[in-house]
């Protein structure tokens, strides 16, 4: 008993010491400026990188938190008024901005193989697909992610940690950043990944209506529901196209279906989902038994699961069970966030996997790379821990209306366009529900010419696959260029 008490006291003292060190090293405002150049699409692009912190203030002007950011500016472009500016956020909530920073749009990319698996030695190399040729970029770590921290411990956590609180303080921070950097004239864009899509969907509306800052585009990478209703039969049925894509990748579909290309299969499965599966699940127990059996047979054909498994789940197989079941006979599980990744559990029995093989693989590569990059390339020295996933709980998810806030901002701003990017093998924020989002944000079809969708043969972070890194960045590049209005073209209907 004495040994346990001594151990507990030692742990408390160690934690207190670590927190004290972190408190000493938190900087309200700081900046490390470096210069570099990157070759993008065969052309030299010189840039200035500013890595630093800038505060969040309360209503009395007192700093209550400080946010870490990295700002890349192309230095051979003098006309900042027409130079696009992109603000980039990741998700979680509680995740730092390193994912898209070091693997997607920035001037450096993670040291991984062609399919996204970790390689040693850890580190980064130049990213020839970065969008820095067409836009300046700001990567932002929200409070308690990355190197961002709370300054005033007396401030309630609810000030930062909730859907609407997050949107409110970040909008004020972005407004201040734009003012300090004299970028009000620039065309502006938001890009968010995963929970970051909830964040930017709300942010664009908050910035537009509370700060009178208007945007040209929002890029939604692997979007969440953004508060849009997907409950009931829709929630149960909409995963079938994802099941079909993943089972096709793992070559477990029937031979005639497996021989087809994914682009041939998915429209067929989407149509069947909308026209047959959703109505069937809606009927519940009233569904004719023979019809139920026929639908289960067809769903088995598309999903790679057995007909009996689908009947056992009353046509509504949970994704968690699918990740465990699909390759159970081979002793393997598949990833949630990217179902190309395979894992092994302690036993093959059970209803869900022991861990997500995709996420553990990514953590393996990203954490050392960010620490190396910040210190050796950005020259930002700190003893703080870079939080890949920071302490932001409890997170208030109530009153999430971000999807409709984005739609409202589009209605009010004829310049504003939205592009969705999804990986076909993402089981966390699947591609078909991402399409469903777009349909629900614009139920009358009045803005369909301002929505676009791009799908990729990878998962949640589609850019980790080398081929998709090139195509997804090019899609953003073209989106930016397409949504810059011609000279003298007014924002009007």
TrEMBL record:
InterPro entries: AB_hydrolase_fold, Peptidase_S10. This is Carboxypeptidase C (Cathepsin A). It comes from the Bacteria. Keywords: Carboxypeptidase, Glycoprotein, Hydrolase, Protease, Signal. GO terms for biological process: proteolysis. Residues 1-20 form the signal peptide. GO terms for molecular function: serine-type carboxypeptidase activity. Pfam families: Peptidase_S10.
């Amino acid at each position: 008993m004495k040994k346990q008490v001594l151990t507990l006291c030692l742990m408390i003292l160690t934690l207190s010491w670590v927190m004290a060190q972190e408190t000493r090293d938190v900087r309200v405002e700081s900046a490390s400026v470096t210069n570099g150049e990157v070759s993008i699409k065969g052309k030299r692009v010189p840039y200035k990188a500013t890595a630093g912190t800038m505060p969040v203030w309360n209503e009395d002007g007192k700093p209550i938190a400080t946010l870490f950011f990295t700002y890349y500016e192309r230095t051979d472009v003098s006309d900042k008024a027409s130079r696009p500016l992109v603000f980039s956020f990741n998700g979680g909530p509680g995740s730092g901005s390193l994912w898209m920073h070091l693997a997607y749009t920035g001037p450096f990319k993670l040291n991984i193989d062609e399919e996204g698996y970790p390689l040693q030695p850890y580190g980064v190399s130049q990213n020839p697909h970065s969008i820095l040729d067409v836009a300046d970029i700001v990567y932002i770590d929200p409070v308690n992610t990355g190197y961002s921290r709370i300054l005033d411990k007396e401030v309630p956590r609810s000030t930062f940690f909730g859907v609407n609180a997050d949107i409110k303080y970040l909008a004020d921070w972005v407004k201040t950043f734009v003012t300090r950097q004299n970028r009000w004239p620039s065309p502006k864009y938001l890009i968010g990944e995963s929970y970051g899509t909830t964040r930017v969907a709300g942010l664009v509306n908050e910035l537009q209506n509370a700060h009178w800052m208007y945007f040209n585009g929002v890029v939604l990478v692997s979007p969440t529901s953004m508060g849009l209703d997907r409950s009931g039969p829709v929630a149960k049925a909409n995963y079938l196209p994802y099941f079909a894509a993943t089972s096709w990748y793992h070559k477990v579909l029937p031979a005639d279906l497996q021989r087809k290309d994914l682009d041939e299969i998915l429209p067929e499965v989407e149509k069947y989902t909308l026209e047959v599966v959703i109505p069937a699940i809606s009927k519940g127990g009233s569904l004719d038994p023979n019809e139920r059996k026929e639908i289960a047979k067809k769903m088995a054909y598309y999903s790679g699961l057995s007909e009996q498994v689908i009947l056992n789940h009353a046509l509504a197989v949970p994704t968690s069970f699918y990740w465990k079941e699909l390759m159970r006979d081979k002793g393997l599980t598949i990833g949630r966030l990217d179902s190309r990744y395979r894992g092994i559990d302690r036993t093959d029995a059970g209803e869900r996997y022991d861990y997500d093989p995709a996420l553990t693989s990514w953590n393996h590569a990203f954490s050392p790379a960010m620490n190396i990059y910040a210190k050796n390339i950005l020259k930002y020295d700190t003893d703080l821990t870079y939080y890949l996933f920071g302490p932001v709980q409890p997170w208030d998810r109530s009153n999430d209306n971000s999807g409709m806030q984005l739609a409202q901002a589009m209605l009010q701003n004829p310049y504003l366009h939205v592009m969705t990017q999804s990986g076909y093998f993402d089981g966390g924020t699947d591609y078909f529900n991402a399409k469903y989002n777009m349909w629900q944000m614009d139920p009358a079809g009045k803005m369909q010419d301002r929505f676009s969708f791009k799908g990729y043969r990878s998962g949640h972070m589609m850019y980790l696959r080398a081929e998709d890194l090139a195509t997804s960045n090019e899609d953003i590049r073209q989106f930016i260029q397409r949504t810059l209005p011609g000279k003298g073209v007014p924002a009007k209907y």
